[in-house]
Amino acid sequence: MTTPTDGRVRRASRRLAALAVGLLAGGVLAACGAPAPRGPAVPHGTVTFAEQPGSPPTYIFPLYDGAESGNNNITYLQPLMWRPLYWFGHPESTAPTINYTLSLANPPTFSNGGRTVTVTLKHYLWSDGKPVTTRDVEFFLNLLLADKVDSVAYAPGDWMDHVVRIAYPSPTTFVMTLNRVYGPGYFLGNILAVINPIPQHAWDKTSTSGAVGNYDLTTKGAQAVYKYLDTQSKLLSTWDTNPLWQVVDGPFRLEPNDGFDPSTGLVIFDVNRSYSGPVKPRIARLEELPYTSETAELNSIEAGKVDYGYLPFTDLTLRSHLAKTFRIVPWLSWGFTSIGITFANRAYGPVLEQLYFRQAMQHLINEPLFVKRIFQGYAVANYGPIPDVPPNPYVTRFVTTDPLPFSVADARALLTDHGWKVVPNGASHCLRPGTGAGECGAGIRRGESLHLSLLYTSGTVAYTQMMEALQTSFSTAGIQLSLQSLPFNEVLTLAYSCVPSTGRGCGYPLGFLSSPNWTYVPVYFPADPDLLQSSTLIYKGNPPIIATILHLIQVADQTGSPAAVYAYDHYMATELPWLSLPNANYQISLISKKLQGVQAQDATEHIYPDYWSLRS
């Protein structure tokens, strides 16, 4: 089973002239409108924020693999404590663009035909008073490159395989040179934005009892440090007592001793009084509250225990009642929604590799009906990897209209024309095996029937309704879906567990995580090879498709040409490495009228509690 991440993953989520002036350079203008820095204030009050159902934080170290790339870790936890080199997103707009005001570095300078970038750091301090320097950048990059295969931001042949030299001429300046040209949009959004300075003076260790050294300066030493920090990150019960995680440069830190409850997922932040950023927190504490279901969260809303929560799609009749005490604001995301396809599944991999079969399944997905009936209009149709909402310069007209519209007749015809006996409300089976015209395709046996299992995230009623609707729709063409649900974190872990060479962990042919289940974070330029590595196992199960997709991505990344991005988007929408579903609003937010400073909701799904305050 494969499922795009929520932050990624859902990582996960992410050009020369035209595109740089579009989404990314446009962010420079947006950043100019950021609120002016506030003066010192005495933080007071506690704000409560609702976690998504079944998705408590699982990983604190801000260098993570795909299985740990959900929003529970990479937008609600880590960046509140450790700021990335370049920040994408805005507290006052939904634009998924660069925000230099909140970035740790000044705008980069490109040279050498796009192969070299020079970056100068701003003045920031760690919470223990030490300055944030390029040694902290070097520390992160040494660990990343020594263990790149463990990073959600890595894909074979990507930029990490083309680093020639990184120089650190001063504590505030570093220079990176690659042997391949990349457009400025990709370089900024998918290379520099991945860099997250971490405190070398406190974390460069290989054991808890060992002294801090310069172990990261060798590959072997960097691997040992990474192994140690990864192990510490997985010891959830020690997060709020481990001195490692108290050294931060973001506006918040875990409250010592009581900041995390691993049995429930409750997170409690207090203020980093040494924060160097432009906006100093006004609240004294932030509590991120865990829930096993939407119903439990709604009960807390009704009981007045949540300042910033969400309204389930199935409870929209409560809007007028809740509007008395809450602002009701849809939250849009910069990403896409899909059903992941495990091409490496031993039982159904050969069937899934047939383009006609993927097209038949897509014809059975009635997106307009789902938008209207299940999400009550709080969703938009989605037909490819680049959404048209929120507005962005990458989307093509081709994918704003459905290239494979809902049609049971077309789905049945595709199966019949390729050798299947279609049995509506039963199980269709292969009559004509073989690889010729009108035959079922390579690896498919005579009599093989269409019984596929689909794993999806539990806890959200709308997702269950959508999966059950798919089960009914697929059955009209004789494709039998067996549904199973698990909590978000378990589905995400299973999405990365498939080992094609052994078949271990590849048991679910189809999988669904959330909507959207891929957000462009921590990579923001939407043509990126790690999307394929993270969101679908076609890397491991369908080489003909991946070769073409990687070529299209490479052209888009290196040239920055709008036409190249459009070509990639078009191919993905027609070749169907995954099945498209509507992009539901990330959530229908309920924001207490006492909570001030929530001007907009960031399409990259970051939150900005440093901007928040409570009205008496």
Describe, in plain words, how this protein is organized in 3D.
The protein has 616 residues and is α+β, with helices and mostly antiparallel strands. The chain has a domain of 192 residues: Dipeptide-binding Protein, Domain 1 (Dipeptide-binding Protein, domain 1), CATH 3.90.76.10. The protein is 28% helix and 18% strand. The strands form nine sheets. Strands 1, 8, 9, 10 and 11 form a five-stranded mixed beta sheet that branches. α4 crosses α7, α11 packs antiparallel against α13 and α18 runs antiparallel to α19.
What does this entry show, briefly?
The chain is 28% helix and 18% strand. It contains 19 helices and 27 strands.
List the main descriptive attributes of the protein structure presented here.
616 residues; alpha+beta; 19 helices; globular; disordered N terminus
Poorly predicted tracts of residues: 1-39, 535-540
Mean pLDDT: 89
By CATH, the architecture of the domain at 17-39 and 63-231 is named: Alpha-Beta Complex
* Computed Rg: 24 Å
What about the largest sheet?
5 strands, mixed
Oligomer: single chain
Question: How much helicity do the residues have?
Answer: 25-40%
Secondary structure elements and pairings:
Elements: H1 17-32, E1 46-50, H2 71-74, H3 78-81, E2 87-90, E3 93-99, E4 109-111, E5 116-120, H4 134-146, E6 163-170, E7 173-178, H5 184-191, H6 200-203, H7 219-233, E8 252-254, E9 260-261, E10 266-271, E11 285-289, H8 294-302, E12 308-310, H9 319-322, E13 326-331, E14 335-336, E15 338-341, H10 349-352, H11 355-363, H12 367-374, E16 379-380, H13 408-417, E17 420-421, E18 429-430, E19 451-457, H14 461-475, E20 480-486, H15 488-495, E21 510-512, E22 518-519, H16 529-535, H17 538-541, H18 543-559, H19 562-575, E23 579-580, E24 583-584, E25 587-592, E26 595-596, E27 613-614
Parallel strand pairs: 1-11, 19-20, 19-21
Antiparallel strand pairs: 2-3, 4-5, 5-7, 6-7, 8-10, 9-10, 10-11, 12-25, 13-25, 14-22, 15-21, 15-23, 16-24, 17-18, 26-27
Helix pairs in contact: 1-5, 4-7, 11-13, 18-19
